[in-house]
Please model this.
Amino acid sequence: MSGLQIATGMGRVERKYGIDLGWSAQTAAGRKAAEYEQFEATMRAEAARMSEFYEVFYCLENSIRRLASDILLEAEGADWWKSSRIDEKRISEPVAARRKKEIDSGITARSDKLIDYTTFGELSQIITDNWDLFEPVFSSKTAVSNVSNQLNLLRGPIAHCNPTDELEQDRLNLAVRSWFRLMS
Model:
């Protein structure tokens, strides 16, 4: 049996029984979740496992926001959000409502940039609505739409704190790779 097989097996035992066998140097030291012993160990372990997928989506979604912002800024200038490139009914108005609701609730606004209030679906819409600007970046408008839809479906359980099984995790990894493969 190889070291990788042993490590994989020990990882499965830890996840199944919600225990830490202490074999991995990657045990997260200083994590806040460790302070919440009132939560079951299995729930904390599941949350730690799912945090990897949240991290992937965080990076992906924010890299898409940055790409869209950069391209639209170059094409339309500093006021690109107010240009005709952003559909008022489908994007600007819902974003403004989300931002207002957040501000009115008394919590700290997440950002000064309105694009940071867009949903994943709205980001995809911005790209496909402005295909003339994004065509040099992506290989196919239809593929961008299809992969974005798949990513959006996979995003739901992750964003709403539900566990996913290994098949869905594989689908997520494949969909993220497909997204980057679409980029010319």
